[in-house]
Amino acid sequence: LVIFNSISKLHFNTSVMSKNNYDIVIESINLFIDEHKPNNFIIIDMDKALGVGGVATALDTRGFYSSKNLYSIDFLKEYAMIISPCIQSITGSIKKVLVLDCDNTLWAGILGEDGHDGVKMSAHSYPGNIYYEIQSLALSLSQKGVILAICSKNNIEDVKKIIIERNDFQIPLSSFSSLKVNWKDKAQNLIEMASELNLGLDSFIFLDDSDFEIELIRQVLPEVKSIKVPSILDHYPEIFRELMKEFTLQKVTKEDLLRAQMYEDDKLRENSNNEKTNLAEYLSTLGIKITIELNSNKEIPRISQLTLKTNQFNFRTQRYTESDIIRMMSDTQFKIYSLSVEDKFGKQGLTGLIILKIKNKKAFIDTFLLSCRILGRTIENSFLNHIINELKKNEIEILEGEYLQTLKNEQVKNFYSNYGFQAGAVNTNIFELKIDHFIFKKDINYIEVINGTKN
User: Fold this and answer.
1) What's the pTM value of the predicted model, to 2 decimals?
2) Is there a contact between 34 and 43 (Cβ–Cβ < 8 Å)?
3) DSSP secondary structure string for all residues of 150-167
4) Which of 115, 127, 99, 106 is nearest to 169 (CA)?
5) Which of 391, 403, 401, 383 is nearest to 448 (CA)?
6) Which pairing describes strands 362-370 and 313-314: parallel, antiparallel, or unpaired?
7) What is the pLDDT of residues 179-190, one digit of tens each?
C-alpha cells in the first residue's frame, strides 16, 4: 500500500477568479498522477484535509524552519482520519454490517404512537428531510455491498408496512439482509444476527437513538461499534457520513453489488433446507456447480478483496493487494485458483481461493479460503480434490499446508488432518500430503465441478 498525496495549491488567489497558469499546471499534474498511478497507489486529495481548518491553521511555519515539519498537529490529525479508512480496507479491518434502529433513526417519530402515516421522512419538510438524507446514504452503502439490517423494538408487520407502502421510504425491503424486529433485548438480537449472517460482531456498526440501547451494546458486545443518533439532529447526516468511512472499499466488485440478493437467496436455501430431514438429501437438490479458474486476470480485484475480507475459513489469513496478486500471477512459481459457485437459487460469484507456491516437486498452500456464505456444503472438499488432481497431472509429489491460528479461524484447525494430511513432527502447524498415495475419501456427487480455465 502506498498513499500518494495529490498536489495542493496551498494558497488562495482571491484576485483572479479564472484559472491561472499555476492552477492549470497543478490540475494537469494531478490528472497525470491519477491516470498513471500503479495499482498499489491510493490518491488522497490534500485539499480535503486543508479545507477543514483552512490553510492558515494547517501550516506551521515555525515547525517548518526548525524541523522541516510543514504541517500543524491539528492538520496531521485530520489527515490521519482521512487515510485511516484506506489502511483499514487494505488490512481487512473494514466494517461489513450496518444495523439500524427504526424510530428516530430511520424516520422521525415513534411508529407505535404516531402510526403509519405519522412518522416523518419526507424530503420536503423538517425534520423528515434529515431522515430522507440518512436513508439515501444508507441505500448508497447497500448499493456498494454493505449489509444493511434492522434491529428495532416494534411490531415487524408494522415496520414492513412502512418499508413497502410509504412512497418516501427509499430503501427496498430486499436491501435488508436481516430484520430483528421484536421485543427481545438488542444484544441478543445482534448475536443471532451475526450467527445468521455468519459474520463476526466486530464487523458490525450499530446505530440507535437510545442512550440505554447504545450503552447496553457497548457493555455486552464491546466488539460492535455503537453510534448514537445525535441530540442535535442537524448533526446527524455529518455523523452518518463519518461512519460510512468505516465501510470504505478501494474497489467495488460485482459480488459487492449483488450481496443483498445473495443473502436473500440464502434465505430461500435455508427455507428449502428446513423441508428436508437429511443434509445430504438437501444438498443433492440444490444443483450446486463450482467453476474453478487458474490465474483469472479479470477477477484480480475480487481475488484481492477476498484475501482482505475473509477471516473464518482462512488457514493463513494472508492479506494481498491487487498489485500482490498481479505479481504472483506473473511469477511461474505461483498458481492462483479462484472458485465461483451457483445453484438453483442463483449465482454467488467468486467465493473461494487457493494460492499455491510450487518449487520442484512440492506445492505449498499459501492461501486457502472460502467466503462464509458458501460454508456447510462441502464445497471446500471438491475444491481441494480438483487442485490435487491438477497437481497430480503436473507430477507434483507433495502438497503442504499450514494453519496459522487467529481469533476467527478456529473452524479450520483440524481440516487438513481430517482430510488426510499428516502433521509435521517438528512444526505441528505444518501438514503434508503425499499426492501419489492419497485416496479421495469423499465422493461428492451432488457438486458439479467445471474447469473454467481456458487452455
Assistant:
1) 0.61
2) yes
3) EEESS-HHHHHHHHHH-T
4) 106
5) 383
6) antiparallel
7) 999 989 999 999
